[in-house]
UniProtKB/TrEMBL annotation:
Forms a membrane-associated complex with FtsE. It is found in: Cell inner membrane. Keywords: Cell cycle, Cell division, Cell inner membrane, Cell membrane, Membrane, Transmembrane, Transmembrane helix. Residues 185-294 form the ABC3 transporter permease C-terminal domain. The gene is ftsX. It comes from the Bacteria. The keyword Cell membrane applies. This is Cell division protein FtsX.
């Protein structure tokens, strides 16, 4: 046979890739062959996955609503009314020289009065004042632990009032930390439930094809060859369930948005719920598909160990 008519045999890698592709399509056809049963399984999985995903999304929105952590740690220091501009400048320089201070913003009485005009409806009342009643203001941002800094400011003879709102933020952070732990616990428990549900679904499919798989084993098919279509079937279940869970959360978001917008508007806020971004949604779907892969792999591995012919 000449070189022109000789046909080269496909490589082992191309055969392996071809079987992966065929297994992927065959598993998808198997999923679509039983649409009602598949939809029920996917719906159950989606509800299980939607609970931890919804809790994580809620925590993200609460953090956003609470505002920037840096801003919530700022300390407002009002100097005494008799403090002069030179006194305020020296006070600000001393604060900036401290190791526990990240930043200091100095607002003069004139700047404070201008800000008050912009943010309130007291313009006419402010115009009627004979003099500016506002003192110098220092907005101090601590670097880390602000306990020592707060004590120093409160005991300083030049300071009249110190306003610090870190207490509520620390409590909120504790609640958010608790919520995050609860979300992860739910994710682990319900993720395990998803693995079991997918594993049981794949097990039923394996039982229905038990004789066919036994023949393949007798013909010398490898474990990977037999396992592969079921692994992809489990992954399809997980991917579909993850996508449906995100759709359900988007529906909940849409349903809650009008009432939340009205509530936020009553406080002069334009806060709106935000769902997962594209990257987060892709990660959630990928994790759900991985859970399906694990569930199918556990069941098929058990089946192959139980039915492996003697001598293999």
């Amino acid at each position: 046979m000449s070189d022109a008519t000789r046909v080269s045999a496909p490589s082992a890698f191309s055969i392996w890739m071809d079987h992966h592709w065929r297994s992927l399509l065959a598993s998808l056809r198997a999923l679509l062959r039983k649409p009602f049963a598949s939809l029920l399984t996917i719906a159950v999985l989606a509800l299980a996955l939607a609970l931890p995903l919804g809790l994580l999304a809620s925590l993200q929105n609460i953090e956003r609503f609470a505002g920037n952590v840096q801003q919530s740690r700022e300390i407002s220091v009002f100097l005494k009314q008799e403090a002069s501009t030179d006194d305020a400048r020296a006070f600000a320089e001393n604060l900036r020289a401290r190791d526990d201070v990240a930043n200091v913003i100095w607002k003069t009485p004139d700047e404070g009065l201008s800000d008050l005009r912009k943010t309130s409806s007291l313009g006419e009342a402010l115009d009627s004042l004979d003099s500016n009643p506002l003192p110098h203001l220092m907005i101090v941002t601590p670097k880390a632990d602000d306990a020592a800094l707060l004590t120093a400011l409160q005991t300083n003879s030049s300071v009249d009032i110190v306003q610090h709102d870190a207490v509520w933020r620390k409590r909120l952070d504790q609640w958010l930390g608790f919520g995050a732990q609860l979300a992860w616990i739910l994710a682990i428990v319900l993720g395990a439930a998803a693995v079991l549900v997918i594993g049981n679904t794949v097990r039923l499919d394996i039982q229905a094809r038990r004789e066919e798989l036994g023949v393949l084993q007798l013909l010398g098919a490898t474990d990977g060859f037999i396992r592969r279509p079921f692994l992809y079937l489990g992954a399809w279940y997980g991917i579909a369930a993850g996508a449906l869970a995100l759709v359900l959360l988007a529906g909940v978001n849409r349903a809650l948005q009008p009432s939340l917008s009205a509530l936020a508007g009553s406080y002069g806020s334009q806060f709106a719920l935000q769902g997962f971004n594209v990257v987060q949604a892709a990660v959630a779907i990928a994790v759900a598909g991985f859970l399906g892969w694990i569930g199918a792999g556990f069941v098929t591995g058990h089946f192959l160990r139980q039915t492996r012919p003697m001598g293999r």
